[in-house]
Design goal:
The structure is a single chain. With 167 residues, the chain is α+β, with helices and mostly antiparallel strands. It has one domain. 55% of the residues lie in helices and 10% in strands. The chain contains four helices and five strands, in the order H-E-E-E-E-H-H-E-H. It is elongated, with a radius of gyration of 18 Å.
Length: 167
Amino acid sequence: MDKLTLISGTLFMAADIFAIVSLAMPDWIITDIGGDMRHGLMWSCLTIHNLSQVCYTPDLEPEWMLALICIFIGCICITTTVILLASSHFDRNVIPYARWVGFAAMVMFCLAAVIFPMGFDVEDIGGQPYQLPNSHQVGISYILFVLSLWITVISELFAGKVCLPHF
């Protein structure tokens, strides 16, 4: 396994971890108006007047459900890419497949990044598509997801260098 394949695989793995961690935390959209409210794709949490925190599985709007599905598919694609890059140590012919599966992951993450802000008009937030109200802000989970997206793009660039013909 050459150096670029190792770098690409490591970056893809980091992107996968960041995406999974972002899904596991409810800090996609946060606010402290009327208590501490944290909206997430998998679960949301609410703390009112310093009472105990209540977490629940939210009923997702279609936009956020579609974004969640895109992120799941992207994570599956990234995991498959890492496995293909690792198996390229034994068979170099799988590298182009790893590149295309990684590209599919990048597309899924880009779709999720474009679709997610369309759901800012949910009742709990009260914004408009692509426009959060001043009382709300993006949280660390969304930032980790965007970081995962950028790392996936960089990983795909490294994977593309691996696929260039060797003269």
